[in-house]
Model the fold of this input.
Amino acid sequence: MRNDKACEERWGCLNDLADGRLVGRKRSRLEAHIESCERCREALEEIRNIKSKVRQTEAPHAPDGLWGRCMGRIADRPARQAPFRWRRKPAVGVAAACLAAAAALVLSIGPFSVHDEDEIPHDHYVMEHAGFAAAQPLDMSSHHILLSAQGAENDRRNPDAESLETPNDAPNTHVR
Amino acid sequence: MGALIAAQAGARTPAAAPPSAVDWLKKNVRAPTRTSYRAAETITVTVGGRVLRQRLRLVHRAPESTSWTYLSLQGKVERIVVDSQRSHWQYLPRRGQIIFSPSFPVDQELWQERYLGRLLENYTVRDAGKTLAAGRPARLLVVAPRSGHEGPTKRIWVDAATWITLKSILVSSDGRTTVASELSGLRVEKTIPAAEFAPPANAKKQTVIYERAAVLPLPALARQWRHPLLVPHDLPRGYSLESARLLSRGRRSFVHLRYFDGFNVVSLFEDVSSSKPPVSRSRRDDSIHGGPAVWHSYPPFHSLSWREQGLKLTLMGDLPRRSLLGIADGVRRVAR
Done:
């Protein structure tokens, strides 16, 4: 039976393997595993594809402080301007597990983190902070922040994606 | 002899003590592992008098699979998130895209072993009695900071039969923000087909892989970090270091020190970038060690950024402003 957890633990080393930075017994053990595990093989292939695509692409830069501006709008917008589209990304989250996983999404070394920037965006800190909180069974306040920050991070890294800042004609949230 | 046995058989066994508030809390944390259900959920965030609301459809299959469908005001599906504690995916119908990523399982036993004690040191858990929520008999629990402790307050309406959270309200430590969640139309089901948690087959797939950074002792972190390592010396009572990690984003490294009181998190980030804090109208200027600092609100928590010893420091957490300023003021360098 495939051991998903063991595979996920190995994924941390796949980037090093793809970059040729993994050596010795670690490398041979991982290569032996990959030969017998389709899931890890696909993951490695995906990393290699992504790296190759990223090398060919100029890194996009989203406006600095996207998250801050969005939250500023929430805090500052007069109530009469309702309905206000709060976020069209993951919006308000509810469960610790899925939200913590969302943090993983944006902290990844996968398609997103191979991208390089001169600075670490504030949103990245927000996600790091909220990720742990959201994984606590009693927490719920961090969920919507985490998912929104993830949305902002995705926007930054995927400039073609719909922006958090763009008002939407089909709001999923509103201000009363 | 026969009479003695008859007397013993007729004697009433002592009644078991009723569950305490903490027992209810433990049951509530374990509830998702034992009950499958469907419900509608509404999440409401109130920031400074403004109310923001999100509607979801929730399906949970015990012990570990949950699906959240985010709905627009018109009831249109905007996003589906599914987590099985082993895997996680999000489907974005508008983009026809599905994103797979590893799951971060919630470990109820670990929480009980590792964090419950700390929570009880810093917060009281009170049974506020029987009540109704979502049209069902419930128990109202109140988790509130102990006298002199700073942190948020949470009220949880626990379903008397299934221990599921029917409703909850969180009030930030400064009392300015509330996050509320409420179920309606709860339907407990014996079995929910696994197929309901299967990803759509025809979506564009993307897989995200991440690397967990090791938790390091502070001296080891100070050696690995090629810059001064600064740590807070004046934390509010009850908060202690939970983890210290050296992380990277692209080619940039940064330090994340995480402090925890069993319920509330405070983070300190350190990096060498020259980036400016985000620009927003929630920004206000402050001062740390006589130098400029910038304050932002990310309801229900806040951030404070300033420069010190060539580093950009960012403090985050749900604490009142004066407390975050006090922590920032007490940041000192760690010897290697």
